[in-house]
Structure formats: C-alpha cells, structure tokens
Amino acid sequence: xxxxxxxxxxARYRFGGIHQAHCKGGLxxxxxxxxxxxxxxxxxxxxxxxxxxxxxxxLFVSGKAWRAIEGADFGAYGPAKGLLGLGGGAGVCxxxxx
Length: 98
Known about the structure:
The chain has one domain.
C-alpha cells in the first residue's frame, strides 16, 4: 500500500479472508490464477484526518503481494460484473471458492 497511500505508516487495516481467485485474459491476454485477500484500509487524507475504511483486494503471485486493487469486486482487467452487470465479460476477475 506504500505506493497508493499518502501516509501508509498511519493507515489502519482490517483483514478479511484469503481465497483462490482467477482473472480471465481478456483483450490484454494476461490471465492470472492465484490468491486474493480482501482488506479494508482507513488512511489519512490531505488534511490529516482519517477518511473511513475503503475496500481493497490484494492479489498474490508466488506467495508475494503483486497488486493492490481498489474495491471489493476486484475487476483488475474490467468490471467484476462485466458489461452492464451481466455476468462478466473479457478480463473479469472472480473468487473461485466463494
């Protein structure tokens, strides 16, 4: 989160579970299988106050955090529910064991 947050040292975290996940290749052709963890992050804003917990999803590759994606529906390569919310399209990411 150091690359995303203004002051990562002051952030507060709530950790959800870690689950197997998958992202389709889509037009970019980058398919991903691995694990994803859901977390909520409460970070300070420009005024120094906490902004409230926001959901993030952390993708793991070979046991190491690879990418942090804003939101609980972690559509890394497109919206998690697909075009117009209709069951998914190219590049949709999803939990495999939920």
